Amino acid sequence: MGGHASDKGDESLSARLLGSGFSGILELVCFHPVDTIAKRLMNSTQKPFGNGQSLSQGFSILNETIFRDAAHKGTFTKYKSLFPGLGFAAGYKVAQRMYKFTGQRHVKDYMNNNHASTFKSLFGDNWKTMMHATAGSIVGVGEIVLLPLDALKIKMQINPAGASWTAARNAPGSFALFGGSAFVKENIFELKDYSQATFFQNFCASIGGAFASITVSSPLDVIKTRIQAKSVDKAEGGWSILSKMVKNEGFGSFFKGLVPKLLVVGPKLVFSFTIADMTIPLISKVIDEKKN
Fold first, then answer.
1. HSE-CB for 89 with a 13 A CA cutoff
2. What is the pLDDT along the chain (292 residues), one digit of tens a residue?
3. CB pairs under 8 A, 24+ apart, for 163-171?
4. What H or E segment, with its residue span, contains residue 277?
5. By C-alpha distance, which of 175, 257, 268, 178 is closest to 216?
6. For residues 56 and 14, what is the distance between their CA atoms, to the nearest angstrom?
């Protein structure tokens, strides 16, 4: 079914909001624990391996980093510990998906209706890929309005710090996400109408776009996460955090949590996009039928 942003632009705003919101809820239930693990790894300044400690000591540090107070408790208690601040996480995830999936489609539709000739003259055969990427980048910068909910999701505490770093992360991240996906569809599958993509084509496009997005935005994402994790009275600037990371942890610290995010982001995005693409046209059809 439909691609990351339908080329037809005929879904209603209500249908897009409801469909993307539903996909966000399902994604949250399935993937929130892995997101928690990634955030905790990114926020940790400890090196579990490579400092001369034994393998068992390294796994012990990793266990305490991931599960914290539940590190030495039963399996079910450990699992529950991966759902801190679920209410905030739910609000953020659903709001993010509704904003990002709906917003990117609307911005892309606007560009297609008003500036298609400009993109064609600037980018030639790649105009459609660049339009999808640019729309994603614009919407990505706007995600800073959700920053308070994102901070609450991370630490259940309002801390509006890091807005500029969030914008810096979201712009190239969203550009790579939607642009990478469009690139796969346009150049590998040679699709002229992305809405005609099959499930397999959507899956491959989502993996390509997601892996590019997460890798490109990872360094800034780590900095943004550490800024938000600080309490208001212990706030620290992004450049200060960056300097300490390079000095004390090395450049590898910019990619902390990248592996678990890469392992989950492909299935997560293809899952959420597929649900959105299935429900948006269905809801749009129901709304149209009621109007008639």
1. 20
2. 444 444 555 678 888 999 999 998 888 877 888 878 888 888 887 777 777 778 888 888 888 888 888 888 888 888 888 887 677 667 777 888 898 889 998 999 999 999 999 999 999 988 999 999 999 999 988 877 766 665 555 544 334 455 566 667 778 888 988 898 889 989 999 888 777 777 788 778 888 888 888 888 888 878 777 776 665 556 666 777 777 777 788 777 778 888 877 876 667 777 887 787 778 777 888 887 877 6
3. 164/238, 165/220, 165/223, 165/224, 165/227, 165/238, 166/224, 167/141, 167/143, 168/220, 169/217, 169/220, 169/221, 169/224, 170/140, 170/141, 170/143, 170/144, 170/217, 171/137, 171/140, 171/141
4. helix 258-291
5. 175
6. 53
Cβ neighbours of residue 55 closer than 8 Å, sequence gap 6 or more: 49
Q: Rounded to whole angstroms, how far apart are CA atoms 114 and 112?
A: 6
CA-wise closest residue to 66 among 91, 41, 95, 87: 41
Measured CA to CA, the distance from residue 16 to residue 283 in angstroms comes to 8
pTM here is: 0.67
Other C-beta atoms within 10 Å of 33: how many? 17
- Residue 23 CA to residue 268 CA, distance in Å, equals 10
At 246, the amino acid letter reads: V
Q: Whole-angstrom distance between the N-terminal and C-terminal Cα of the chain? A: 25
Query: Cα dihedral angle (169, 170, 175, 181), rounded to 10 degrees?
Result: 110
Q: Which domains does the chain have, with CATH numbers?
A: 13-291 (1.50.40.10)
CA distance linking residue 103 with residue 154, whole number of Å: 24
Helices (H), 5-146: 13-43, 55-67, 75-80, 86-114, 116-123, 127-142
How long is the chain? 292
